[in-house]
Specification:
Shape of chain B: globular
Largest sheet of chain A: 7 strands, mixed
Oligomer: heterodimer
Structural class of chain B: alpha/beta
Chain lengths: 192, 464
Amino acid sequence: MLQSTAVPIPIEDIDTDQIIPARFLKATSREGFGENLFRDWRYSKGDVPNPDFILNNPTYQGQILVAGKNFGCGSSREHAAWSIYDAGFKVVVSSFFADIFKGNALNNGLLPVTVSPAFLDGMFKSIEQNPNATFTVSLEDQTIRNDSTGATFSFDINAYKKMCLLNGYDDIDFLLSLKDKIAAFEKQQVIY
Amino acid sequence: MGKTLFDKIWDAHVVHTLEGGTDVLYIDKHFIHEVTSPQAFDGLRKRHIQVFRPNQTVATADHNVPTINQHLPINDPLSRHQVETLTRNCEAFGVPLYGLGHPYQGIVHVIGPELGITKPGMTIVCGDSHTSTHGAFGAIAFGIGTSQVEQVLSSQCVLQAKPMKMRISVEGQLKEGVLSKDIILYIISKLTASGGTGYFVEYAGSAIRSLSMEARMTICNMSIEMGARGGMIAPDETTFAYVKGREFAPQGPAYEEALAYWQTLYTDEDAHFDAEYVFDAADIEPMITYGTNPGMGIGITGHIPGMDEVENKVNYEKSLHYMGLDPGQELLGKRIEHVFIGSCTNSRIEDLRLVAEFLQGKTKSDHVQAMIIPGSKQVELQARREGLDKIFEAAGFFLREPGCSACLGMNEDKIPAGEYCVSTSNRNFEGRQGPGARTMLASPLTAAACAIAGKIVDVREYLN
């Protein structure tokens, strides 16, 4: 269960090149990408913070990022999920996620919550009226509540991924446990 | 009920199914490159495990590499470190590497097909969204994140829910001057940048069948630009003829055996698709994009939509403001400063031949910078053998060395802020070709014609 204020970016089709531009993908570790999250929107020329961009506005804080539909489209770079998580977000809400981004987020403990367009609109409106508006996300119940209006939305999540997130399980541990089955599969498989 | 091509291949690769529908999918071939693999190898080290099937992974350096003087050390220390890390990881874990200086080096989605590594019926993944390219062979190929790269390295499998299926048919004959790049830009402009999300696409129809393998790759390559996980085309005689005799293709009796299997790879007549679209090839003209996602494209003679024609006005205004364009504007005659011919979408030998043939006897406009980046060392060598480099030079173009280059601007090849680039690549996102760069996606022929004119032109006016 997470209750938090949220940071709204009401733009559609935000691609992973905006979330983290390619020139910042040169690191060989997973850490430190948060400072370049939305780099070219956050900073103008000469690395001057752009005061109009929401992440530079101290009024808006929180562990929930709320964005327009088709969030995370484009490049498969997992660095996009790493940078959002590294910047302190635990949940991303949109009416629609790009497939690869959604998988990458789930593999890194960042929960993508898909809500209806109407519920998303309600979230944007509540934050506009009160930047301290809170939202409550329960992974266990698969619900998100707009605490200002009381509206609740039940979201879908893959059952296996939910189990992994709740229990801290790891895909690779699971796959390694299947090694014998994989080796048996290979015996009957012909690769040309 | 019959099966789709996609179902046939997917079902043949399921090792195990989890409750809730996620499959453990066996991966026949895994490509890696320097940008999305280092953290995956680190993961193996932390777990003290080896690569499960090192010979089913192939590595190359492409995203970060310079496109001139590749024989010298890489200038940028971060890029150099990343490329060297790949070399070290491949050595330590026994993964075959076609690194800088190797005759097989190149963009990962160019080398797989040209070396015969990519074959019909395979499952192929890579930490790169344009892995969909390999679907042109009738393979299931899709991009994955680094956590999944680690899954494949450690188990040769990925955990993946089966996507929905979509068929897009293009029927009829293409008009003169219209290339496969125009077909896919047209399709994306109709379906939008998110219209394929949740789906795996099969491209079909007589116009698709008539295309060469390289042209088919261009179509499948951009499937991800409408949000689809991948795109594929059923293998046929064109496919078999292309694969036969390549370095890693089966030879002799093994080829015949493979061929017998490949010939079973088609969608049954009574198979079901979750979504279906049919387009008429005659409706497609040379395309160009005007906005900041690949769905924002128009026929070259058209007008940018007016404010009253778009749903999300805030997004649209932001996009056109970035591009320095006005709603309702026509693009013909718009001055441009750069032309980029390259990327995993359009950097193969056929693309270069087409451009060379067009450029013969012409020279680029003085104010245009024109780069041609071959997709691989093999493409570069072939172009030089055929004397294409001389034609490019005479026309004021410069044939460089292979890599992803200005498609994503990770190396020095960037478009300066505010300037316009007609590009054969796949993404016109803000800043994609460099901070502030303004990208207009088009076919190699349209890009070449725009370089000659120094402005946006209709290539058909230059054809006899």
